[in-house]
């Protein structure tokens, strides 16, 4: 269990973005496409774990002051720093080595992801706005990983919406950091000095509105209607309910923590997400 927490296996949910190009193109049921996407998912997950371990190793002092992060394996002392660094290096090298054989394009994506996150862990995460932008770029690179192993072109709408959604989620996490800093006097990130609750709430409102408008334009444009049918606009309703529920959890229930935890724990969001995926699966494949 300690090593599963160290690898942050629960965060592998984020890597399902790799399957998006195949799913939304209607080709996820093709065996070569599905297997290539699965291979990219596994290799990206190994690289992500290496990054998580490296980042936790860099943040060990700050994490020990945090009410939740102090229980992480490295911060709690369950895993030593030398062992953590060794595991991170092994995972990164395995991911890069296998990807170079599996798909050279995927190798380049993983190399960019590694370099970007090393820079993030050492310096860039301390710069407000730039920190959440880099986190969001990580999700775009997940899409690129799916493109790299399937050759399926990425829709500009998909890229924009994934970036907007990931920025929205990253700002929600910073709001959580602000709340902890105000309530408990624990500053877990240097970049927190560049944010405050009012700024983040305004930014969240802007990004949620832009995300919804972008989705409406995407789902109602002639290209989408020709592929998905005249009833495609019905998929807007789960998206709208999902955004409202997320904002309710942030502002009413004060649950502004990790978006992965929210999705894993909130039944309302889980049902909405399944309805949205199910609607697209029906429109595309049935």
What does this structure look like?
This protein is globular. The protein is built from 14 helices and no strands. The mean pLDDT is 88. It is mainly alpha-helical and 286 residues long. The chain has helices at residues 2-7, 20-24, 31-58, 60-63, 73-76, 81-102, 104-122, 130-150, 156-184, 197-220, 222-228, 236-251, 259-265, 267-285.
- Specify Rg, calculated over alpha carbons: 19 Å
Query: How can the largest sheet be summarized?
Result: none
Overall 3D geometry? globular
**Which residues form runs of ≥5 with pLDDT under 50?**
none
Structural class: mainly alpha
| H-E string | HHHHHHHHHHHHHH
What is the number of helices?
A: 14
Alpha-carbon distance between the termini? 40 Å
State which percent range the strand residues make up.
under 5%
Helical coverage, percent range: over 70%
Mean pLDDT: 88
* Overall strand count: 0
Furnish the topology, listing elements before pairings.
Elements: H1 2-7, H2 20-24, H3 31-58, H4 60-63, H5 73-76, H6 81-102, H7 104-122, H8 130-150, H9 156-184, H10 197-220, H11 222-228, H12 236-251, H13 259-265, H14 267-285
Helix pairs in contact: 3-6, 3-7, 3-8, 6-7, 7-8, 8-9, 9-10, 10-12, 12-14
In short:
This protein is mainly α. The protein has helices at 2-7, 20-24, 31-58, 60-63, 73-76, 81-102, 104-122, 130-150, 156-184, 197-220, 222-228, 236-251, 259-265, 267-285.
């Amino acid at each position: 269990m300690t090593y599963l927490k160290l690898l942050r296996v629960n965060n592998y949910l984020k890597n399902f973005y790799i399957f998006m190009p195949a799913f939304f193109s209607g080709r996820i049921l093709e065996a070569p496409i599905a297997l290539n996407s699965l291979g990219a998912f596994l290799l990206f997950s190994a690289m992500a774990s290496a990054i998580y371990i490296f980042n936790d190793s860099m943040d060990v002092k700050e994490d020990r002051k945090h009410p939740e992060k102090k229980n992480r394996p490295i911060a709690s002392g369950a895993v030593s720093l030398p062992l953590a660094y060794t595991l991170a290096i092994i995972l990164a090298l395995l991911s890069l080595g296998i990807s170079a054989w599996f798909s050279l394009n995927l190798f380049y994506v993983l190399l960019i992801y590694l370099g970007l996150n090393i820079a993030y862990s050492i310096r860039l995460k301390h710069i407000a706005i730039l920190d959440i932008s880099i986190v969001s770029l990580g999700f775009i690179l997940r899409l690129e990983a799916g493109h790299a192993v399937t050759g399926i072109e990425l829709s500009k709408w998909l890229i924009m919406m994934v970036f907007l959604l990931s920025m929205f989620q990253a700002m929600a996490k910073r709001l959580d950091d602000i709340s902890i800093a105000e309530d408990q006097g624990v500053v877990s990130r240097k970049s927190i000095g560049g944010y405050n609750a009012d700024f983040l709430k305004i930014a969240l409102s802007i990004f949620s509105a832009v995300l919804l408008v972008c989705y409406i334009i995407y789902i109602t444009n002639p290209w989408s209607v020709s592929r998905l049918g005249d009833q495609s606009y019905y998929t807007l309703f789960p998206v709208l309910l999902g955004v409202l529920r997320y904002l309710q959890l942030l502002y009413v229930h004060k649950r502004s923590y990790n978006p992965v935890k929210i999705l894993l724990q909130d039944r309302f969001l889980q049902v909405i997400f399944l309805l949205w995926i199910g609607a697209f699966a029906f429109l595309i494949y049935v």
